[in-house]
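User: Hey, quick favor. My workstation is busy. Could you predict this chain's structure for me?
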Amino acid sequence: MRRILLLLLLIVVAAGGAIYLAFRQDIAAAGARVAGHGSAVVETSFGRIAYAEAGAGPPLLAIHGSGGGFDQGLDFTRRLSDEYRLIAPSRFGYVGSDLPESATIAMQADALDEFMDKVGLDRAFIFGGSAGVLSAMELAIRHPERCRALVLAVPAAYAPTRKPNTAGVEGDFWFGVMRAVLNSDFLFWSLMKLSPDTMTQMLLATDPALVAAAEPAEQERVHGILTGILPVSQRAAGLLIDMATAGDPPRMELEKIACPVLTVSLRDDMFGTSDPAEYIAATVPNGRAIIYLTGGHVWVGHDEEIWREVKAFLAPLGQDALAQIGP
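Assistant: No problem, here it is.
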């Protein structure tokens, strides 16, 4: 019996060691991926803002969504890098950026305005994704001279018909799980390994069955978005802020947004972003909405199509921008 117990103990220790080794390898790979984006930091009156750049052409400010950072901002807009200079800052509390005390959406917009001065941008196209839409719109409201146009993808924003705190999972239990997971790289990693479908639904607000039925390239893209949240410890503070603001976002003075606006969403997005997309497009002076029936929050099956629409929207505006920049 003692030999059996000792053998079982050795098996448990070996399995635990293998699991921990796999975790450390994945976390190291995630850290290397973030570092590979070649970020820099600027000092502002709101604290440090980390950012990364790619591409060349008219400048486009890529404002990431929940679970992101400068790396997500660049990864999401990479299809534009052949035609635009992408500048992707980390929002408050995300990778490399400070979280000011009592941070608000207005403060984030003012910080982005100051950031643009620091990196030498007078005006830019603005891309906002998910919770990053709030900062993008507030920047256009408070500092309209900065914005040539807005592209707002799956906007986690206010609409009269959007239920507050819309999420991929409902109930106090799951929100408690989410908060615990966001404070531990190991818990986050373990849940990704043990229950990727739950994490896809909880964090990406997308039906796992939709992903399972997608083409392999789309499955890989969605998996990359989920694993790209690692290391979550570098994003937890920002994520918790987003849960409070994007879950029940304030109504904004959309009538003050003077630049052209394109919104994109999907009816089955579990974060309920199709109503805000239509509301924003109908309320701003110059807006257009593109709504797909299925695809979830990460637009499964529509990636190529959506970026074609974005490029078509930006193309004439980009030519005007180049003409103003000159040779």
